[in-house]
Design a protein that fits this description.
284 residues; mainly alpha; Alpha-lytic protease prodomain-like; Alpha-Beta Plaits; 8 helices; 3 strands; elongated
Length: 284
């Protein structure tokens, strides 16, 4: 397993576990739906970070007879799990927030510790967001990038929770369920975004036009390639497979054409995010 991705997965699990403990403690003491919502959000984060850890490990396994192109689709599956859990959590918080908003049940007591918890969350999640974004880009890992987005959302959720608690402290208890509603809607939106991105990876979405242009330029830069008539690429998990047809002089020997094709393959596979290139030689 990539040691950088391994460390990031452990940081994710440990960080979310710490936040869950202090949030559930503060939420039970204060009775705040905003804090309890954050606590359950962290619990979901723990489950999803464990899923990310497992899927990152699976995705790094070597190709075998049953999976000739490797196990890279495991990472988008982890991202999809994060999205599903986020949606479930968001709707549950909406239900609880509406009950408190319209039924007015449960009093909220906001002490210093309750106010301190979202501040700690904001600081820790800021660090985690920057760290996961850096690691995710370096390791080209959609699962860790999903964790970066998730951490950023947790930061914004903590800001909403803090605003709700400050409102309660100021004598406006309605602020607490309102903060809970804002948090839940943001969680659902985030889950939707993460889900769609990872579904694209699983469904074999084509890469962005800039990368397609880079693939074409790499192929045309090989001596002996006269033109390109077909280029297709799609995601296979978090990496990309490319099929390209290159035109070469029909008078070249089979060996010469093969060497040109091999050089095109190497050039394309040297591009970041490209795992495999399939080259078809068209004599013209």
């Amino acid at each position: 397993m990539n040691p950088v991705a391994f460390r990031a997965s452990l940081v994710n699990i440990l960080g979310n576990t710490f936040l869950f403990v202090i949030k559930i403690w503060a939420g039970m003491i204060s009775g705040s739906i905003a804090l309890l919502s954050e606590a359950f959000s962290s619990l979901t984060d723990i489950v999803s970070s464990i899923a990310v850890f497992i899927c990152v490990r699976i995705s790094n396994r070597e190709a075998d007879e049953g999976h000739p192109f490797g196990h890279t689709r495991a990472e988008p599956i982890a991202g999809l799990l994060v999205a599903i859990l986020a949606g479930i959590l968001g709707f549950e918080i909406i239900r609880e927030s509406f009950e408190r908003l319209f039924l007015g049940r449960d009093s909220v007591v906001v002490g210093t510790f309750a106010l301190l918890v979202p501040v700690i969350t904001i600081l820790l999640k800021s660090i985690m967001t920057i760290y996961f974004r850096k690691v995710g880009r370096k390791a080209h890992s959609p699962a860790i990038m999903a964790s970066a987005v998730d951490s950023m959302c947790d930061l914004l959720v903590a800001l909403a929770a803090l605003a709700g608690l400050v409102g309660v402290r100021a004598g406006y208890p309605v602020f607490d369920p309102i903060a809970g509603l804002i948090i839940s809607l943001w969680i659902i939106y985030t889950g939707y975004r993460i889900g769609m991105e990872n579904i694209d990876c699983l469904m074999g979405k084509a890469p962005e036009p800039a990368l397609m242009d880079e693939i074409k330029e790499a192929a045309l830069g090989v001596e002996g390639v006269k033109a390109i008539n077909t280029v297709r690429a799609h995601y296979v998990g978090n990496f990309i497979h490319v099929e390209i047809h290159v035109e070469v002089d029909k008078d070249l020997s089979t060996f010469e054409s093969h060497d040109i094709g091999k050089e095109v393959e190497e050039k394309i596979e040297n591009i970041k995010a490209i795992e495999k290139a399939f080259i078809h030689i068209d004599p013209v």
